[in-house]
Amino acid sequence: MGAREHNLKNIDVTIPRNKTTVCTGPSGSGKTSLSIDTIYAEGQRRYVESLSSYARQFLSRLHPPRVDHVDGLSPSICIERKTTGKSPRSTVGTITEIYDYMRILWTRIGQAHCPRCKVPVGTQSSDEIAEKVLHIGGGRRALLLSPIEPLGSESYDALFQRLRSNGYGRVRVDGDLHELSETIAIDKKRDHQVEVVVDRVIIRSAQTSRITDSIEQALALGNGVMRLQLVDDKKQSEFRFSQHHACDKCGTSYDELTPHHFSFNSRMGWCETCEGLGTQQGASPAAIVVHPTRSIADGAITGWGELDRHGMLYAMMSALADHIGFDLHCPWNKLAEKHKLAFLHGADETWIALRLKANKKSKGSKHTGPRFRWRGFFPAIGRATRSSWQYRKRLEDLVTDVPCDACAGGRLHPMPAATQLNGVTIHEACLWPLSQTYAWFDKLKLPAIKRKMAGELLHEITSRLRFLVDVGLDYVHLHRTASTLSGGESQRIQLASQIGTGLTGVLYVLDEPTIGLHPRDNNRLITALRRLRDLGNTLIVVEHDREIIESADHVIDFGPGAGVFGGQVTASGSVSAIRKKRASLTGQYLSGKSAIPVPTNPRPVSTPPRCDLVGIDDEGDIFDELTEENELKWLTIYGAREHNLKEIDVSFPLGRLTCVTGVSGSGKSSLVSDVLYNTLATRLHRARLVAGGHDRIAGIEHIDKVINVDQSPIGNSPTSNPGTYTGLFDGMRELFAKLPLSKIRGYRANRFSFNRPGGRCEACEGMGQRCIEMHFLPDVWVTCEDCQGTRYVPETLEVKYRGKSIADVLEMRVSQAVAFFASVPKIRRMLQTLDDVGLGYLQIGQPAPTLSGGEAQRVKLAAELGRPSTGKTLYILDEPTTGLHFDDLKKLLQVLHRLVDLGNTCICIEHNLDVIKTADWVIDLGPQAGENGGTIMAEGPPQVIVKNKQSHTAKALQPVLKAGPCQVRERHDAKQQASLELALSEKIDLGDDVKMPWQHDGIAWHTVDHLDHNGTPCEWDPALLLWLVRTIESIGNFAPTDWNHRSRIEIKSPGATPWFCHILTGSKDLIEVCLRVDNRTFTPSQLAKLNMKTLDERRDLPIYGQWERVRIRTPHPGWQEVKLYLRDFKDVTKTTFRTMLKKAAASYDGKLVVAQTDPDSDKPWKSLGMAWHLSQKSMSNRQMAGWKPDLLVTLVGRFKALQADLDFSWDSKTAGQFTVPGETMPAGKIVTNMGRALRVELRAPSGLLTPTQVERLGQDVEIKPCPAYDRIVFWVRSLSHIDTKQLRQVWHACRETEVSQRLQSA
Amino acid sequence: MTTLIPTRYLFDFEFPLLYRSKLPRINGKLQDWSDEYLLPTFSQLDNQTDFGLVYACWNQDGLAIACRVAGKKRALVCDPQRYWAGDNLRLCSDMRDARSNKRATKYCQQFYFLPTGGGPKKNKPVAGSAQIKRAKDHAPSISVDRIEVASSVRKTGYSMEAIIPSACLSSFDPEQHHRIGLYYILEDRELGQQYPTVGDDLNWHVDPSTWPTAVLVKP
Question: In terms of DSSP bridges, do strands A657-662 and A225-230 run parallel, antiparallel, or are they unpaired?
Answer without folding.
Answer: unpaired
